[in-house]
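Example 3.2
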Amino acid sequence: MASLPSVGDLVPQLAGLSPIPPGHRAPGLGGQNFTHCCLLAVNESLAVGSDGNLTYTATPFVAPGVPIGALGGDGGQFPCGASFDGDVGGAPPVRVPYDWCAARCGGWEMSRPGATQQWVGPLVQFIVPSLAFCTNVPRTRKLAIPDVVFRGRPRSPAGFASYWLRLLGAFLLVTADTFVWLAICFAFAGPMLLSAVYEYALDRRVLEFLAAPPETRPAAVPSRLRAHLLLAVVVGNLRMATLETHDVERAGPRTRRHDSVVSDDSELTTAPVNSRKIGEVVHNTIWKRVTAIVEEYEAARLADREDEPVVSLPTKLKSLLNSQASFGSTIGGPTLFFIGGFIYTVLDVENNLGDNDTAHALAFGLWWMVIPYLAIISCAMLASNGTSALNGIVYDGSTVTRPDEYEPSFWAQQIKKAEAYPVLGWAIRQVEGYSPIETASEGRFQTVKLWKRGLNKQEWVQEAIRDYEHSASEGAPGDRLSPSDLRRSLQLNRRDVLYVLFGAAFAVLVPCCLAFLTSYNTPQAGLSCRSLTYLVYAVSQACEMALWASAARLRVRHGARWSEACPTSKKVAWWGQVFVGFFSIFAAAGGTVMQLLGVFRSCTCKVPVRYWPRLHDPSAYIVLSDNTAEDIAAAQHWWTATGTTAVIVIGIVCALAWWHQRRLRKVFRDEADRLETDAW
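Structure, written as tokens:
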């Protein structure tokens, strides 16, 4: 009697099947293969009957109603490793309980080099463009490259050999610096966007106040105030020092600066002022240096020296405005190319319907659209991201004046406290003078971090108001704009605040929502590892923005002494930022790394979160087959919809940002030109 054939004889895909996944890597280190797991499940679902034909076992893993001939090659797709071939019916579903998957297919599956949608696609299509976008986000610090790297002279054998090592070292440092900055931008995009939108709203408020018809204002705006407000618009990103230069030279006990709405980032040791004349208006030294161009122009106009061959104040103001690179060249063009590439990705997914790797790669790209939004909003502001133009227009004190004193940052305060301990103090002194970090701008003028720019510009506007209030108190009473009316006119109202909150939340949450919907509705539908990552990121960004907004409100109300006036709120805001920042960094950096490596391809992540407390429940099943009818239906319903929505929204946001910036730039130039004709 002839022996019966084996399952492998009747199903070629199962011939020579081993219980161990192919490869040499351990499953716990990424060596699992879920296509191999699918083959094991199919193999355990089939048996050979007494007549020599295939039959299902008592507890098959293949979905009920699937003809057994479809698994043996008699029509239909084999479920393991299937791909879309135009048939929306797809391949037969193969479902296994979680217990079976954990026992037979533990560990996770590392991304395969040949599977482009697992890591190459997300890396090249979304992360690499984000590296270019993040370079347009203003920053204050960067990784310092040692001068020794640039001293190579390839004119001798030794110099030629070291030349390539120096070049490689510089390349690695720049690459590390860019990736670190990208990670910071992604993890803290919420506060950055909120501050940027706040600054934009403040610019609009100031310029619309200056350009308003005379009949809508209580009184005319003096030319000096107009010039100061225009300066605040274009240089309001400069951080302010603590004391006046001429006061620094006086000895005395350390005192605090005047009320301020923002703390600065470095600490320099100079003596503070100990006495001032009664009634003397106290201005920041940076403010006084920058507004010197207004003082010079005002003195020339009052002395009737307008014909002198000097650069006029309107020209200087417009030069500062034009020092901000064109929106189209910095962000408009790159966004257009990014949208074009994303459109191709959306159209190309139609050829891979049912492929879950393609679905999750699309969701990953939608999530990373937060970076283009951040770059677009950052480039829509009027203040230049650099200080080169200002250094060429305004005298910064050079080396003849002592360094400016700034409010110490939190870390500077902690280092100061640590120096009191012998061991820590000795360690700090050993590395004193060495800094692997350098400022992004050269010269005495330094910018503030993006998440502080909105509040910093608010301080510049307040300085202009204080200067006007001081001059108004010394002048003769008359039909002048009162300081209270001025403050009220330049203060953001509730509608402006709502616009700021909505604009920042929209730029952060829309990409997260689209990514969440795509992953959530990819079978097995439900909240799982990837969609949970997007949800945690969105919630952490919303919490970061809420903490930033609450701290900003207190800073505006109480000035730099808000931590003294509200110590409990200060601690809650700081520790809240630390707590929420941990989850934000984990979701942004950790989620990206796990997506690219493939850590999410595991039994636990293939089960919806609702089953995690009861993984042994029979309903906690895992779909191991590919290209099922459910996969194809979800792809047709969600992939094109979310991808198209993302393209349309980012295009509209970019166009609106460009239009509004052009409008405000036109208002600024018109108001600057009015300084030539207005009376001083």
